[in-house]
Amino acid sequence: MAEENIIELRNVTKRFEDDGSIAVKDMNLAVRRGEFVTFLGPSGCGKTTTLRMIAGFDTPTSGSILLNGRDITALPPNKRPINTVFQRYALFPHLNIYDNIAFGLKLKKLPEDEIREKVTRVLEMVDMAGFEKRNTQTLSGGQQQRVAIARAIVNEPEVLLLDEPLGALDLKLRMGMQRELMRIKKEVNITFIYVTHDQGEALTMSDRIIVMNKGIIQQEGDPVSIYDEPQNAFVADFIGESNIIDGIMLKDCLVRIQGIDVECVDTGFEPNEKVDVVIRPEDLVVTELGAGFTDGLVTEVTYEGAYYDIRVQAADYEWHLQSNVSAMPGTRVGISILPENIQIMHKPRSSDEEILKKD
User: Fold this and answer.
1) Are residues 113 and 173 in the same domain?
2) Distances, alpha carbon 30 to alpha carbons 15, 112, 210, 222, 356, in Å
3) Cβ 46 vs Cβ 14: under 8 Å
4) What is the mean pLDDT of residues 250-271?
5) pLDDT, position 176
6) Quick one: what percent of the chain has pLDDT higher than 70?
7) Which domain range does residue 251 map to?
8) Who contacts 116 (Cβ-Cβ below 8 Å, separation ≥6)?
9) CATH number of the domain enclosing 70
10) Number of folded domains in the chain?
């Protein structure tokens, strides 16, 4: 029976010798066969270092990396059934598209007929059939990315690593390539591990998202749970936009915000425990004065196409709302929220937990 987990990281730490900084701290993670897993986080959070350790380009300071249950921590990159696609496509400028894709197969000394068959198949897969003789220098950014992906998957790796591969593309092309990657993923029996700082990209493409900050996994889960049920203030603030405000959990299902008692659905907190209260802008509703949990002054309204971005100053906090109904700057309005749309989170209690808070 094949191992369910294709990649495992066990207590992996990476410390850089030059300055002693820790890029990844005691990471434990299992990637299931056939998953599309995304490492998501801000610059410097350790996501690319983690990818490089899986690829074999960096070696963990401590801990181990397993592939199909076998320890590959010290195995060089060329001995691993893993390919990487980088943001810089690194295509060979002196070779045409066919020879770029066939390069790895020729190193393996496969028969020419088999090479031709494999290259033709992946060119069709990335919608580049008929481009075999084209010079890579004449291609658009999106086309070069397709060739880079074709060159990686033609070798039939067990794992494909992608390090911010769409970062250099414009918005429309990037969205198109996201759909292409999802389509390719369905056609090939390869595990995808993807690195990005783009939350929309992660939510759109992933089976599972690993949110990282300062070398520590903050939360992992499917896109819906990551967005709807963030486990700490950092995740809530990084994934989408959020109102994050101090509160006091008076008792189960009742939180005090700015001196106002508001019903929620959270339980299991200590009486009068200080908490972080997280509310998504799209969950707040503009109402008549006195009809919500608080009233405030509309300070700013911006039309964003799909919604109006509204700022409302109430007491010492400026609430951020996203609504399909506009409001007039300078007027006073009420703000309402359904109890189930309020997220209550514990305050951090240690230095590691402090990392979870918004910087």
Assistant:
1) yes
2) 21, 38, 11, 14, 22
3) yes
4) 96
5) 80
6) 95
7) 243-354
8) none
9) 3.40.50.300
10) 2
